[in-house]
Structure formats: C-alpha cells, structure tokens
Design a protein that fits this description.
The chain is an all-alpha fold. It has a domain at 157-231: Tetratricopeptide repeat domain (Serine Threonine Protein Phosphatase 5, Tetratricopeptide repeat, Alpha Horseshoe). Helices cover 75% and strands 0% of the residues. It is built from 14 helices and no strands. Pfam families: TPR_11, TPR_16, TPR_19. It comes from Paludibaculum fermentans. TPR repeats lie at residues 27-60, 61-94, 162-195. Keywords: TPR repeat.
Length: 231
Amino acid sequence: MALLEQGRAAEAAPFLKESARLAPKNAQYWKALGVAFASMNELRDAVEPFRQACALDPRLLDACYYYGRNLYGTDKYEEALAPLEKALAVDPVKGRAEAAIGQCLHALGRNEAAEKRFQSAVARHDRAEQMARLAFGQFLVRQGRAAEAVDVLKPAQRPESHDASYELGLAYCQAGELEEAAAALQGAVRLSPRKAATRLLLAKVYRRLGRVSEAESEELAAVTIGLPEQQ
C-alpha cells in the first residue's frame, strides 16, 4: 500500500497481486490492485480487481465507483451502469456516480435519460458539482446546445482547472461568442501550457476574430509541443 501511496504503482502491483492471492476475500487488496493498474493506464487489467472489490464489499469507498468508471473507460457502457448504481446508493458524494451514469447513458444513445441524470447530479451541489457540471456541459455541446452549456459551465470555473476553462471556451466558441471563448481558452493555456489541442482551438478562435499573428503564435506552440493531446 505504501508504494502505491508514493505513486510507485508498477512496483506495488506484484505485491498487491500476491496480497490478493493470499487473502482473496479482502476487498481492500483487490481495490488497491485495481488502482495500481489504472494508475499505469492498464484499464483492462484493472477491471477484474475492481469487480472483485465491488462484489466483496459494495460499501467499500470507491470500489464500485472505480469498477463502473473502469468499465466506461473500456467502452463497456451497459455493464458499467449496475456498479455505478451501487456506488450511487452508498457514496456520500453522490454527484460523481450520478454524472458517470449520465455519461454511460449518453454513450448508449439514451440522451433523455442521460440529461435527467446530469441535471440531478448538478442539483446535488455536493463536492462533485464541478465534475458534474463539466460532464453535463460536454453533453450539451455534443447535442448542439452550446448556449445552454455556457450557462452550466460558467459556475464550474472555481476552483480553476484546465478542463473547466477548456470546456467553457469550447462552448463559447460553438455559441459564436468568440471574445469570451478566447478569454476562457487563454485561461486554459495558462493553467496547462503544454496542451496542444487547447492551443489549436485558441488559434482557431483568434483566426475567426482576425487576430492572425496571435493565431500563428498558438499554432507554432502547438507544433512545438506535438500532436494534439486527448482532452
């Protein structure tokens, strides 16, 4: 556990595997093993440890939530719903599980049900509100409802984060509010200057505003960084 807490997931994984083998009914060991795999971005390897943890102790903090999120991350949207519903029932911060359910429903094309889940997650006003608003805002942008997304995303700007500023900038851009888009994306670049995709979107906004030299500067920065990263 200490190695995992120190961010040394690759070193921790063999010890956690052995711990889970010796104590297969210990949900905490299984959850920790899943976290180790997920930390190394080995999402498919993390599925079974998280499944075991959720099955052994559905009330263990994060066990079912991590299982559901990991299934979502491996494109198993329908399978993710059941563990996320379990997480919603026991998690003291319910907004994150409900927003995750909304994301699964959206991925399954069940948009009306997804929207209700996002609205409910935001309305909880718990510690996951920023995350819920970002997820709902992304959903609205993808539905072509950028103006509504702006209203959802504006209250999600505290605490500051790259993702919050980026999503607001994207919504403003799609809503045609280019000056506001530029301001939000400038904030995103300030917070994470090595996100090439953010710089390219800002360059696009600058070009639409006729600010060619600034656009060229952002494009050069993006090329220097490399290919656009996944947002």
